[in-house]
Amino acid sequence: MQHVETATLAAPAGDTVPPPFTVGAIFTEIRLTSLIALFLLIAAALYLYGVHRLRQRGDQWPTGRTVAFLAGGLGSIAAVSVTGIEAYDTTLISVHMVQHMVLSMVGPIFLALGAPMTLALRTLPKDGRKVLLAIVHSRVARVLTFPLVAFGIFIANPFVLYFTGLYRATLEHAWLHEFIHVHFIVTGCLFFWPLLGLDPLPNRWPYPARALLMVLSVPFHTVLGLTIMQSKDLLGGDWYPNLHLTWIDPHSDQVTAGGILWAGGEIVSVTMLGILVLQWIKQSEREARRVDRALDRAEAEEAAAATASPGTDDGAEVTEETQATSPGAATKITNAHATTGPRTEPE
After folding, report:
1. Which of 111, 144, 174, 304 is deepest in the core (most CB within 10 A)?
2. 29, 87 Cβ separation under 8 angstroms
3. What is the pTM of this model?
4. Between these two residues, 258 and 342, which has the higher pLDDT value?
């Protein structure tokens, strides 16, 4: 296991250190033995099976959603959890911060845009749909996905992780390290799913409120990033100095990590705000088209009613002409129209 090896390298008597981190290491240090790797494979298989089921019965599923879920969501998570990013995430705090950003922000955004819950509701049998809907609309789900609650969890998590002894514990214990990875993904999904997701959720806020919540999340990443950059205490205590890396200074690496969190948080926040605005525009366009169709139907119904009604323009002309020549005859015709509908002869 990676963490056992790292702990061995951290021994004061050891003179073996990992090689410098390079872009090539991302592709040469592939590790498929983690729980997250298993989760990714299962999630991809289930999603593709659902799309296949829909196509078998002649239904369509947007290709963009499939790409977002598989490539953007699962792909980005895999890029930082089964590659060299994972191999060095306990060696360099800067690498860990890249992993943190992707697991908690990038991956969850694309997972939400893939609408996996909608896909499941369209492919599951009746009993399965009932179970899924019961879970989504349960009291626990309503509380956790309420935007303000999810916002609080999402913002508080990194402060608790980095400014307590929890971060050092994740470096020392492999199981806790894996759990934190899953925790990043789950909390990111709780925050982004009600804001950007396409699935039916009980706590869907209007677009202006969602945009405001996203804007409010930006300063927290800035504060956290700057605090880490300016801190003279190393995250993880003496963990990184004990690795005896001759090719990197732990303090400089921590400054880089803080910059990644600061800049990365702002970039992702602006990007997701742009996605939200696009969704807002599309919804407005759909709503405008629905209103137009409703007005067109109303006009068509009125026109059809006017055509079928005896009180047409032709009838009015006949009545006026008849009134001019024979007031009695005009009265007779008018009364016949009023009492017999389309019939022109009195009963």
Report:
1. 111
2. yes
3. 0.76
4. 258
